[in-house]
Amino acid sequence: MAAQNMNEYIRAFPGEAGARLRQIRTLIRKTIPEAEEKISYGMPSFSLNGKYLVYFAAHKKHIGLYPLPKASALLEKSFAKYKTSGRGTIQFQMDEPLPLALIAKIVKLRAKENLAKAKKPTARKQKTA
Predict the structure, then answer these.
(1) Average pLDDT over residues 56-62
(2) Which DSSP letter does residue 122 get?
(3) Partner of 85 for a Cys bridge, out of 10, 71, 89, 102, CB 3.0 to 4.6 A?
(4) pLDDT digits (tens, 9 = 90+) for 67-117
């Protein structure tokens, strides 16, 4: 059965994985307090202004955080130590400390991107008579 909310999802992962999920959840809440929690695609996620901000998920050997900000070139040196993918994923291994400062930077950059999208006017075609 799929988790209906973030508490259920986190409770399904005992021990270290659950502790890491709680750390990430708390960090995102503190970093972007106005973000809304939900489960999407079977994973915990946060949205801002009706747009998805980040997802995170526990796996056997790592915690994944999705998506990386488009401005991730600013953080390339910080990402060097972690496995990333072209789909905007970064993996934090279970046997290494969580890089909370890096996660906070990622979330802040994603929020900045999210807010920039919200400010862009949408182009609508005008009907001609």
Answers:
(1) 94
(2) P
(3) 89
(4) 887 766 667 778 888 998 877 889 999 999 999 999 999 999 999 988 887
- What pLDDT was estimated at residue 125? 45
**CATH number for the domain harbouring residue 13:** 3.90.1150.200
24 within some domain: yes
The total number of structural domains that make up the chain: 1
Of 19 and 74, the structure prediction assigns the larger pLDDT to 19
Residues 6+ apart with CB under 8 A from 15: none
Residue for token pair 């929690």: 37
> Structural domain of residue 103, as residue ranges?
6-116
Calpha distance 113→88 (Å, rounded) = 14
Separation of alpha carbons 54 and 69, rounded Å: 9
Q: Taking a C-beta distance cutoff of 8 angstroms, is the pair 44, 54 a contact? A: no
CA–CA separation, 76 vs 85, rounded Å?
12
Token code pair at residue 61: 């050997």
